[in-house]
Amino acid sequence: MAKTDRAGTAWLAQCSDQPAAVRRAWAADSLATLRSGVWRVVEADLLRSVDAMRPLGRAGVLGPVLVSTEDRRAWWLTALDAEDHLVDLPALTVRPARWPLLCPEVGQSAYGCAWLEAPDGTGKLTDPIALGAAFGPTSTLSAEAFR
Question: What pTM does this model have?
Answer without folding.
Answer: 0.91
